[in-house]
Amino acid sequence: MNNKEICILVVDDDVDTTNMLCQLLGITLSAQHHCFSAGNVDEASKLLEGTFFHLVITDINMPGTTGLSLCQQIYENHPNTVVIMMSAMTDISYAIEAMRAGAFDYLVKPIDVSQLTTTIERALKYQESLMKKHYCEQSLEEEVRDLFALNTRIRTTRSPKTAGDTLRTDAAGNKG
What we know:
The protein has one domain: Rossmann fold. The termini are far apart. Helices cover 61% and strands 15% of the residues. By secondary structure, the chain is of the alpha/beta class. It has a 5-stranded parallel sheet, with helices on both faces. Helix 2 packs parallel to helix 3.
């Protein structure tokens, strides 16, 4: 990872869980980061509107809107943010549903610290590659725009001259 500060959002309706995860990230992550927390999807959505997050770690089961809905919202509106879902639900259908909603990975509570750390490191590397792809696409779009603009300028500067040359050639051909 780069030496830039990474923003991580932890979303869980259990305040102890969010506090513990943020403290745990401070101890275990090698990357410089800032950890935000939200107690529900509405709080998380407000934070997402004003801050770019590299990673969101969210519980699935919360009162009101679920973490799955949040994951889907992030996938659609913040495609360069990676989501790790977590839940005490061990049924495989929850993991499948999380992946279909756009999650990078699914962890079962209680969270194993080494598994969490490994998953976060992989997720942040994936997020970094998403950002590189995003910057390359932006750069390519700018280059294409510049080429189209140059092409348009060349055509507009050539068009009147070419039309005039054609008229002169036609006029010279009709003299004889």
